[in-house]
Amino acid sequence: VYRRTNDGYLLYSIGDNGIDEGGSYEKLKYEGRSLNEMSDEAKQAANAKIPSGADDLAIRMPPLPFVPPAIAPTGSR
Questions:
Q1: Which residues pair with 5 in a beta bridge?
Q2: What is the 3-state secondary structure (H, E, C) of 4-33?
Q3: With b meaning 16 or more CB within 10 Å and e meaning fewer, what string describes 50-74?
Q4: Are the C-beta atoms of residues 32 and 9 closer than 8 Å to each other?
Q5: C-alpha to C-alpha distance for 77 and 72, rounded to whole angstroms
Q6: What percent of the chain stands above pLDDT 90?
Q7: pLDDT greater than 80 at residue 52
Q8: 33 and 41 in contact (C-beta within 8 Å)?
Q9: Which of left, alpha, beta for 55 (phi over 0: left; psi -120 to 50: alpha)?
Q10: CA 17 – CA 60 distance, rounded (Å)
Q11: What 3-state DSSP class applies to 55?
């Protein structure tokens, strides 16, 4: 599953249980974010939202920087 987010995108596979849990993996990740990297308050909130048995494998990617293509000046060869 590919899902755009405010801070890039989330790419995840639905695990062996065949249920789409939004990129969450029980007790480890919520929507592709490691619970270990969250504040205690955010970790508690995320844990409450992770379904029991969640087994989606996810990777969260930041947005790529946009670099406009160079445009050659008119009339030059």
A1: 8
A2: EECCEEEEEECCCCCCCCCCCECCCEECCE
A3: beeebbbebebeeeeeeeeeeeeee
A4: no
A5: 9
A6: 73
A7: yes
A8: no
A9: alpha
A10: 21
A11: strand
- The tokens for 47 are 């844990």
Residue 45 has what pLDDT? 94
CA 23 vs CA 1, 2, 70, 72, 75: distances in Å: 8, 10, 38, 44, 52
Nearest to 17 by CA among 8, 27, 26: 26
Residue 72 has pLDDT above 90, yes or no: no
**What tens digit of pLDDT does each residue of 25-51 get?**
998 999 999 999 999 999 999 999 999
What does the alpha-carbon distance between residue 73 and residue 70 come to, in Å, rounded to a whole number? 9
Residue 77 has pLDDT above 70, yes or no: no
Instruction: State the residue for tokens 């508690």.
Output: 44
β-strand 8-13 against 57-61: which pairing, if any?
antiparallel
